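Deliverable D5.2: sample structural annotation.
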Amino acid sequence: MKKFYEARYTPEQQKLAEEIIGMEKAALDKYFKGDMSGYLDLWSKDNFTYFDANTEERADTYEEVAHFLKTVVEGKMYADSYDFHTPRVQFSKDMAVLTYQLHADTSLIEMHYNVIEVFQKDVSGWHVIHSTWDLITPFSPNVKKPKVIV
């Protein structure tokens, strides 16, 4: 059954959404076998930023994230299965945003992430120019609330 937003897709957008979701799932399939090449190929080498729930600052280059994946994660991150939950693709002219929830019990951590992948089309195809992997957590009581509700 199609979601309400999928009913608004043009045939071209439907095809592109399937392609983008397919590229992401192919990268995840490799990722959970200890192989980082899927993401290293998917992410833009020229224009890339990355936020992760386990880092304090944004990574501003492909090289920063590639180094992390190759030295800390590659060959160590395994999962027998994962749940790629509620993917959605939103479109602009040469950009697309994929959002989904990711759940996996891996060899390193138990993952529960909200994932945002911003794709941009260039002469070589679609590549991720920004990626955010943020923990799925309920609203924290430690977050400062406004003193006056407007």
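Annotation notes: DSSP finds three helices and five strands in the chain. The helical segments are 11-31, 37-42, 62-73.
The annotation will be released with the project's public dataset once the embargo ends.
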